Amino acid sequence: MEITFEEIDAMMSDCVLCPRMCHVNRLAGKTGFCGQGAQVTAARAALHFWEEPCICGSRGSGAVFFSGCNLRCVFCQNHDIALGKYGRPLSLERLSQIFLELQDKGAVNINLVTAGHFLPQVCLALQMAKSAGLCIPVVYNSSGYETADSLRILTGLVDIYLPDLKYHSPRLSALYSHAPDYFEMASAAIAEMFRQVGKPVLSPDSGLMEKGVIVRHLLLPGCAGDSKRVLRYLHDTYGNDIYVSIMNQYTPLEHLRQVPDLDQSPLLRPVTAEEYARILDFADRIGIENGYMQEGGTAAESFIPAFDGEGLSPPVSSP
């Protein structure tokens, strides 16, 4: 499905792109839950080396971090851009050029990080870039809180889906992300992602993923029971036709201490090595074979890049 400027205007004038169904006119400068208007804003576009090995390889993934988010995860590592505090406006022509520039820098793919609230604009920018020579895979890197209807416009444009499946429990998703319907929406979104790209395809030469779905699950401290339900759902539904990335990088950032009702929460501490080992053992016991784990002390702010506008301005031509 090809997107036109007219279709973008129609979608932005009554925005129902995500499960929030805000119905705001973003063309008129109104903002919904994501906090963003109709113009694309981003905080960084650069080679990124902190993804799964089959996504970043040795050369890095060409990650574009978009501003805004339709979740409000109290523990968000990227909370400054999720709240729209950082970001520069980009024309769609400039966004398409950024994709091509990342390819020229050696990126193994284009990695669209939290782009759901700019879906039609990103689709058009991808169409423009592909017609101008973009030929590396496109990764859609998502919180998982999407609608299947909106995702359908990405058919044929995205090669790899990299969604989260954060929670199974509506209580936890309401408490920590203000989205009691998270599992209902995310599980349907992942089903649509799998429908589009199917089973994983990895390059026999480089080991890089060329097509497929990797579902990420971040283990939260004190939430092992919910993590087990998430992993069992994924394996019962998809078997080993998807990859599952089980992460221990949860970082209790300082701003959590100012969040109401979290003064006694387990979120104020990192995940313990014992908690993580038990979840990995559970994943092995239920038969998850296509999986990734994290090693060592990964709960660190080194996973959070500098949202300094790198890569957003056009390169300066040499005299």
Tell me what the structure shows.
There is one protein chain. This protein is an alpha/beta fold. Helix content is 31%, strand content 16%. The chain is built from ten helices and ten strands. Strands 1, 2, 3, 4, 5, 6, 7, 8, 9 and 10 form a ten-stranded mixed beta sheet that branches. Helix 9 links the parallel strand 8 and strand 9 (243-247). Helix 4 (92-104) crosses helix 5 and helix 9 packs parallel to helix 10 (273-286). It is globular. The chain starts with a helix and ends in a 26-residue tail after the last strand. The model has no long low-confidence stretch (mean pLDDT 93).
Summed up, the helix count is 10
> Beta-sheet strand percentage?
15-25%
Broad shape: globular
Major sheet attributes: 10 strands, mixed
Distance between the termini: 42 Å
Q: Measured on Cα atoms, how large is the radius of gyration? A: 19 Å
Give the helices and strands as they follow along the chain: HEHEHEHEHEHEHHEEHEHE
Mean pLDDT comes to 93
Q: Which parts are unreliable, with pLDDT below 50 for 5 consecutive residues or more?
A: none
Task: Briefly characterize the structure.
The chain is α/β, with parallel strands linked by helices and 319 residues long.
Give the topology.
Blueprint: H1 5-13, E1 40-48, H2 53-56, E2 61-66, H3 79-82, E3 88-90, H4 92-104, E4 110-113, H5 119-131, E5 138-142, H6 148-151, E6 160-163, H7 170-177, H8 182-197, E7 201-202, E8 209-218, H9 224-238, E9 243-247, H10 273-286, E10 291-293
Parallel strand pairs: 2-4, 4-5, 5-6, 6-8, 8-9, 9-10
Antiparallel strand pairs: 1-2, 1-3, 7-8
Helix pairs in contact: 4-5, 9-10
